[in-house]
Amino acid sequence: MQKIKKVAAASVAMVLLGGLAACRGSQSEDTTEEGIKTDFGVTSEPCPDAVNPDNGCIYLGIISDLTVGPFSPLAPAIVEAQKAFWKRVNEQGGIGGYDVDVSTYIRDNKYDAQTAVEVYQEIKPHILALAQTLGSDPTAAILDDLKASNIVAAPAAWSSAYAFEDIILESGANYCVETMNAIDFAKGAKPEISSIMAVHYPGDYGDDAAGGAQYAAEQLGLSFTSVVTGPGTEQNGAISQIMSERPDLIIITTGPREMATIVGGVYAQAQTTGYTPMVIGTSPTWHRDLLGSPVAQALQLAYFQSGPWGPWDSDTPGHRAMREALGEPETITDGYTAGWVWSYPIKAALEKAVENGDLTRAGVFAAAKSLTSVDYEGMLPAGAGNFAAGPAGQVKATIISKPDPESSTGVTPVTDLMVGPTAQGFTLTEPCYEMLH
Q1: What is the pTM of this model?
Q2: How far apart are CA 167 and CA 119, in angstroms?
Q3: How does pLDDT run across 100-117, given as a tens digit for each residue?
Q4: Are the beta carbons of 66 and 74 closer than 8 angstroms?
Q5: Dihedral sign (CA 357, 358, 359, 364)
Q6: Which of 109, 236, 238, 360 is the most exposed, having the fewest neighbouring CB atoms within 10 Å of its CB?
Q7: Distances from the Cα of 297 to the Cαs of 213, 292, 303, in angstroms?
Q8: For helices 75-91 and 334-341, what crossing angle results, to 10°?
Q9: Rounded distance between C-alpha atoms, residue 343 and residue 52, angstroms
C-alpha cells in the first residue's frame, strides 16, 4: 500500500485523466419537476426492482475486495449490509422522491490499486457517489479523480488521512487513535508493560496504526519497535523478530489470516520459551472463523480486538435495525456492522442535498461538507459525523473486545466506547503515518 498523498504512478494518472476528460465531455445538468438539480447517477426512471416504482433512482457505486485480496473474507458481508441498509431506506419512502440503488454498480478491486482505477472508471459515468471504496491503497489510487469529479465516497477503511479529505465521508475512529486507546487499555490492564511492537502491513493502513502506537509509546515512556510484514500466511520473519525482541504488547495491523498466523506462531513456542505477550489487533484483523482454526486456543488466551464501534450483538437502535434488516446470515461477521455504519453519512449527505435542491455531484459534495453531525442511531457517540469541522471533528472513541465462541461474531466487548488519556490529549495535524519514524 502506498501513502494516500503519493499514489501518482504515471499509468494510474493517465487512466484517470483520460476518464475525467471523457466524463466531463458528457456532463449534462437537469432539473426535476420537484426543482431538484441533477447530473450524473440520477434518473427519473425507477431503479431496477424498485421498492417505490413511482420514484426516480439514485445510483451509488461499490468498489470492494470481493474475491482474492486479504479482506475478501469480510468484504461480501460489508456489501450485503449496505444493500440491506439502502433497502430499508427505500422501504421508508426513499430520499426526496428517489430510491437508492447500490446493486447495479458493484465491482471487485481485488485490493489492488490499478484494478481499483479500472473498475472505478468503468462505473464512474453512471454513479452519483460511492457507497463504498474498500482499502486505503485502492482508495488512494482514485482519490485525486474523486476530488476532481466531486464524487463523494464512503471509505471501507479508517486512515487518519481521510480527516484531511473533504470528499471522503469516514465513520468511526481512525487506526491511529484506535491504537492509542488500545495501548491505554493494555497499560491499565497490565501496568508492567514496558515495550510495544507494532507488526503491520506497509502503507497508510499499517503505518497509520503504527504511528499511533509509536506516539502512545512515547507519551507513556515505553520502548517501541515497528515491524513491517506483507500479506500471506508466510510470517516467519515477523515471528522471528517478535521472538527475538519479546515485546510485552504486540499491536497487529494486518488481515485476519496474517494475524492468526503470527499469534499462532508465537504461542506455539510458549511452552518452551515461557513468553506469552498480550496481543491487540486493529479492527480489520478479526474474523469469527478464526475460532474454528488451529490457533483458536492461542487467540482466546492472548488476543484482544480493538474497533471503532460495538460488534453485531450490541444493543443500540442502529444495531437492532441492522439485525432486523439482515435477519440471520449463515456466518455473522462484523463486516455487516461496518457496512451498515459506513452508510449513514452518505444518507445524510443525500438528504441534505435534496433539502438544498441540488442532487448534482457538486451539490452532494457541498451538502457533505456542511454536515455538523450524522444520526448513527446510537452506533457512534452523539456528535459523530461533524464533517464541517475537518480534523477537529474526528471521533476518538473506540471499544475493546475479547474472543468469545458464544457471541455472534466471535468477540464480546470488555469495555464500552471509550477515549483513553493518550487519544484525548492528541491533536491530529497530519496523517499519523507521517509521524512514524
Answers
A1: 0.90
A2: 19
A3: 999 999 999 999 999 999
A4: no
A5: negative
A6: 236
A7: 26, 9, 10
A8: 50
A9: 20
